[in-house]
Amino acid sequence: MADTAKADLMYGRMCESPAAKLFSQDDLKLLMNEPDLVRLLGYTQSLIDRKMLKLVKVGDDLRFQVISLSETKKLTSMSDDEQMIYTYIEALGREGIWTKTLKAKTNMHQHIVMRCLKLLELQRYIKLIKSVKHPTRKIYMLYNLQPSIDVTGGPWFTDSELDTEFIDSLLTVIWLFISLKTFPTAFQEPQANTNIFGSVYPAHHTGFANLDLIMDFIILHKITNIDLATSDIRSLCEVLIFDDKIELVQGTFDVYKATWQSVLEAGYGRQYNEAGVLNELQKAFVQDLNATRQFDLFDHYGVINDEVNKDDVAYLDAWAI
């Protein structure tokens, strides 16, 4: 009885430290001022038997870690088989464990394993998760944990499937935001008093979009309810760079500007012609711009106007082979 009281005292003192702390035998000797190792191990065994303490292997050494009272209550309500399965699931953390691996580690019959899993799942101690890497496997993890990115595939996957619609919508939003930070009048409604020569910022402009501004914009306007990291936004920007829609500002890191070609592809300039609001000078500028695009070898979106004599056009089909 005295040993149980001493064990409870040791448990209380251990709980005063952070929950993740691992105690060695020497730590417990100092904590309890107990030089008798046999008596000290009696305290630890009492706590282990009551599911209040667990052994953790660190390299070749063993450490002791306290178990919270709520977790203790949970463990003591389980059968021995359920406890063993729960312990293996807990050990794998956010990675989860495959039922086949669980069966091999516990050396239990398949029927017993599945029965225990079902009971633990009904009590919301564990949950079944889907893995992007192994979609056909049944993988379990603790109910209160969130799967790691390696398991879920990150924010780009929904129900283990790549959510291309979500990705495309975010790419569009990010490109529009960067474009507006690059070309101030690019997507405004056509106005007769709009100076299209002012659509580009001066060379010394420093207010281009960076990752923080993009992230703030997405959060402020509640573009998505999925938590995105800075690395996720950077990945999307890299896709836009690959698609020639944006580019890094020279001499900077994670600062972007839209390409003029991507804005032209989106229709900037043409809406002014169609709306009939351009004055003669601006109209000449847009027409000259369109004419220039016809002879740009690096313009993948240029077309040949109907007015051009086809006999005067050289087709370089052989270059594309």
From TrEMBL:
It holds the Pfam family RNA_pol_Rpc34. One of its GO terms (biological process) is transcription by RNA polymerase III. Gene3D superfamilies: Winged helix-like DNA-binding domain superfamily/Winged helix DNA-binding domain. PANTHER family: RNA POLYMERASE III DNA DIRECTED , 39KD SUBUNIT-RELATED. This is DNA-directed RNA polymerase III subunit RPC6. The keyword Nucleus applies. Keywords: DNA-directed RNA polymerase, Nucleus, Transcription. GO terms for cellular component: cytoplasm; nucleoplasm; RNA polymerase III complex. DNA-dependent RNA polymerase catalyzes the transcription of DNA into RNA using the four ribonucleoside triphosphates as substrates. Specific peripheric component of RNA polymerase III which synthesizes small RNAs, such as 5S rRNA and tRNAs. It is found in: Nucleus.
